[in-house]
Write a structure and sequence with these properties.
Radius of gyration: 14 Å
Largest sheet: 5 strands, parallel
Structural class: alpha/beta
Distance between the termini: 21 Å
Number of strands: 5
Strand content: 15-25%
Length: 136
């Protein structure tokens, strides 16, 4: 079983990543982080972001891979291509923190993942408790 977490390194809080890490630690599963970058990101920034994610994950002693989704690459297709076992793999995505009484709207990106990726999809929402370090 692999938990696949697409992230935007520039987006700040990564609640889906934290949720997936928690499950990976408890289950002994693998973690795949797909970091998506924009065309404005220079190669040095991409390398620094990947190194930073890897450094945080190294301290947690879990099986993981961190890969980059390049600007011209379709992120949903990349996620789809990483699924190895559709019955076991889980894609974990998050929706932004909202006010307690707000409605959540799934964007086109999450809708495509749900519709096109042949794996289980967990949509998690951020909250005040998500303001912790990786693995906590």
């Amino acid at each position: 079983m692999t938990y696949i977490v697409p992230i935007l390194p520039s987006a700040g809080e990564q609640y889906a990543l934290r949720k997936a890490i928690s499950h990976v630690i408890h289950s002994g599963s693998d973690l795949l982080v797909i970091a998506a970058f924009s065309q404005d990101d220079d190669p040095a920034k991409i390398d620094d972001a990947l190194d930073g994610i890897s450094a945080e994950l190294d301290s947690l002693e879990l099986a993981y891979r961190v890969v980059a989704a390049l600007p011209r690459e379709d992120l949903v297709e990349r996620i789809r291509g990483e699924v190895r076992d559709p019955d076991q793999d889980v894609v974990v995505v998050d929706v932004p923190v909202q006010k307690p009484d707000a409605r959540y709207h799934l964007g086109e990106y999450i809708r495509r993942i749900i519709a096109e990726v042949p794996a289980h999809v967990w949509v998690v929402r951020g909250n005040a408790a998500s303001q912790t370090r990786l693995g906590e």
